[in-house]
Structure formats: structure tokens, C-alpha cells
Design brief:
The chain is mainly alpha-helical. It has 3 helices and 2 strands. The chain has one domain.
Length: 79
């Protein structure tokens, strides 16, 4: 089964929903960094993506997100 990747708009909508539900600072601090984090699992060569192992994908995304693509992550991401 091939992975389904989220678009930038979907990630922003999820973030907006979480801010609405749980509070915090709305907005995106660095759209470029967020786009990079979203694109990383899709990168590959020869038709193969890096997203072959879910645990690796999650670890990479967590690292990218913790670098600061969104304004308010302290209360939602365990380090």
C-alpha cells in the first residue's frame, strides 16, 4: 500500500483545528520550513520514496516540526 501524503493546505487546516480546540498561537512562523517538512517524506529516487517505514517517517517529521514551522507546539509535542 502506497502512503498518502498531506498537502500544505491540509496541514495548515489541521493546525488551525488544533488551535481552535486547545488554544494557542495561530499562524505559521516559517512557511518554507513547514513546506520542507511536508515534502521530506515524499523525496526519493527511481519511483521509491523515503516513506517506506512509518516509524522513520514519523521520527523525521517530528524533528522537522520541532525545528519550528508552526508557532505553538510546546504543549502538543512530547520531546
Amino acid at each position: 500500500m502506497l502512503p498518502i501524503f498531506l498537502s500544505l493546505d491540509e496541514v495548515i487546516e489541521i493546525h488551525r483545528d488544533q488551535i481552535e480546540r486547545y488554544g494557542g498561537s495561530a499562524g505559521i512562523r516559517d512557511v518554507g520550513l513547514l513546506q520542507s517538512a511536508i515534502a521530506m517524506p515524499q523525496a526519493g529516487f527511481g519511483g521509491l520514496t523515503q516513506a517506506t517505514d512509518l516509524a522513520r517517517v514519523v521520527a523525521r517529521l517530528e524533528g522537522q516540526v520541532l525545528q519550528g514551522g508552526e508557532n505553538n507546539l510546546n504543549g502538543r509535542v512530547a520531546r
